[in-house]
């Protein structure tokens, strides 16, 4: 088994364990549909890799990684309701499968389980709470005060997507017992990776086939959502260049960290490349 796959197995096994422990069964079934329907598990993988990069053990960061994945999944459930998206991760979205009420309850259940995983560490609770505030501001901005310039879009992307990526890496550093500088540096790395991820997502929405992508495409234009392609006159190629610039800055931030585990560090470097080049 490849080392990175081993880390993902740790995440999946713990995620299944958490979901299986949810009561009542109806809530567990709804949460299982959204939490175990696939996904790249990028954020929890970042948590584990960040922890290992600075000397921690993968097992020390698994709960925090699963927690941030649950927070992310909860936000996707609500996004799909707002956007009226019928597909998520190649399957039916929660509201399509169960209706609006059960979907909202499932989102609440995901958040409850997430915070239970963070509750033993005050610093982790603070990091996640701050990221959720940023996420909420970003979502509100997207609905009510759409960005009109590239700079405003970048601020939105840092709040809407970058904040949870930042939290993922900072949680890994916290799990490893890192100092404030290291927590911040890994957070900056991940935030910029998240922004690059979001820009690439915008490009894929504009140019990809829905079946290949695993979710509806053309949604940003249809819903008048503020993607970088919609807000500016940038071509998809130029938008990809913006994503590349963010990925390069992410790598610069990562290089300021004292590396203990070179393998994990290498995977974080690879991730900065992957988010720019991915096709799904």
TrEMBL record:
InterPro entries documented for this protein: Isoprenoid_synthase_dom_sf, Polyprenyl_synt, Polyprenyl_synt_CS
Single Gene Ontology BP annotation: isoprenoid biosynthetic process
Protein name: Polyprenyl synthetase family protein
CDD domains assigned to the protein according to its UniProt record, in alphabetical order: Trans_IPPS_HT
Cofactor(s) of this protein: Mg(2+)
PROSITE patterns reported in the protein's UniProt record: POLYPRENYL_SYNTHASE_1 (PS00723), POLYPRENYL_SYNTHASE_2 (PS00444)
Keywords, ordered alphabetically: Isoprene biosynthesis, Magnesium, Metal-binding, Transferase
Family that this chain belongs to: Belongs to the FPP/GGPP synthase family.
Regions that span the bilayer: none
Any one Gene Ontology molecular-function term assigned to this protein's record: prenyltransferase activity
Superkingdom to which the source organism belongs: Archaea
């Amino acid at each position: 088994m490849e080392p990175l796959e081993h880390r993902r197995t740790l995440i999946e096994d713990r995620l299944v364990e958490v979901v299986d422990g949810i009561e009542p069964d109806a809530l567990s079934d709804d949460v299982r549909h959204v939490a175990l329907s696939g996904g790249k598990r990028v954020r929890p993988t970042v948590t584990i890799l960040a922890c290992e990069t600075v000397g921690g053990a993968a097992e020390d960061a698994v709960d925090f990684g699963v927690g941030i994945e649950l927070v992310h999944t909860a936000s996707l459930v609500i996004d799909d309701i707002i956007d009226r998206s019928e597909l998520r991760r190649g399957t039916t979205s929660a509201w399509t499968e169960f209706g609006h009420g059960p979907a909202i309850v499932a989102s609440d259940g995901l958040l409850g389980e997430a915070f239970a995983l963070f509750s033993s560490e005050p610093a982790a609770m603070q990091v996640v709470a701050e990221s959720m505030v940023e996420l909420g501001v970003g979502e509100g901005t997207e609905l009510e005060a759409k960005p009109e310039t590239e700079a405003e879009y970048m601020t939105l992307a840092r709040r809407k997507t970058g904040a949870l990526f930042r939290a993922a890496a900072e949680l890994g550093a916290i799990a490893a017992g890192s100092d404030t500088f290291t927590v911040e540096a890994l957070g900056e790395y991940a935030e910029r990776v998240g922004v690059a991820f979001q820009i690439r997502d915008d490009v894929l929405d504009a140019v990809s086939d829905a079946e290949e992508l695993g979710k509806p495409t053309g949604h940003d234009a249809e819903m008048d959502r503020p993607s970088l392609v919609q807000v500016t006159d940038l071509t998809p190629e130029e938008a990809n260049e913006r994503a590349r610039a963010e990925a390069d800055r992410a790598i610069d931030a990562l290089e300021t960290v004292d590396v203990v585990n070179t393998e994990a560090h290498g995977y974080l470097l690879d991730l900065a490349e992957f988010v720019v080049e991915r096709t799904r």
